[in-house]
Design brief:
With about 160 residues, this protein is mainly beta. It is built from 1 helix and 11 strands, in the order H-E-E-E-E-E-E-E-E-E-E-E. The strands form 2 sheets. Strands 2, 3, 5, 6, 8, 9 and 11 form a 7-stranded mixed β-sheet that branches. The chain has a 4-stranded antiparallel β-sheet with strand order 7-4-1-10, with no helix packed on it. It is elongated, with a radius of gyration of 22 Å.
Length: about 160
């Protein structure tokens, strides 16, 4: 009778272990793209003329084929590793006024929460070199803007 009672008490634990779903421990399988204007993008470097405004018009998340729907959440923008805007409002737009910025290389980083069906909450992290130049003659390419899918890390934390 003791064996039966021990087995009976162990059943709930076995049921709990069997109900665990491994999908919850997986980070989202997505890519994040950025839509911008007011600068040029060449070889992963955003170039803006000092005094112009670089506009990040929005971020977009695209699930990998065969995966669930995804949305973005809280998004923080950093300029030279200093956070300057956090927003949870889609399309996660920001205007970066370069008036008075020192010419040369700066860094624009984006950390954005990602929520995807059947996945753990994740973070998309990507960074651009931001080159501030003195005149339009120093700016490569067309200033019309565009959309880019940068090299990014999708992780379970921002650390």
């Amino acid at each position: 009778m003791k064996k039966f009672l021990s087995l009976f008490l162990a059943l709930p634990m076995l049921a709990f272990v069997a109900s665990c779903d491994d999908d919850d421990s997986k980070v989202p399988d997505v890519s994040v793209s950025i839509e911008y204007s007011g600068g040029t993008l060449t070889d992963g470097v955003l170039t803006v003329v000092e005094g112009d405004t670089l506009k990040i018009e929005g971020l977009k998340v695209t699930p990998a084929p065969g995966t669930g729907e995804a949305v973005l959440g809280q998004t923080t923008y950093f300029l030279d590793n200093i956070p300057f805007l956090t927003t949870s409002i889609s399309p996660f737009a920001v205007d970066i006024d370069t008036e008075g910025m020192k010419e040369g290389t700066h860094y624009l980083r984006v950390n954005t929460q990602i929520f995807q069906v059947n996945k753990s909450i994740g973070w998309g992290i990507f960074q651009y070199k931001l080159n501030i130049v003195a005149s339009p003659d120093d700016q490569p390419g067309d200033t019309g803007g565009g959309t880019d899918t940068p090299e990014q890390t999708i992780t379970d934390s921002v650390d």
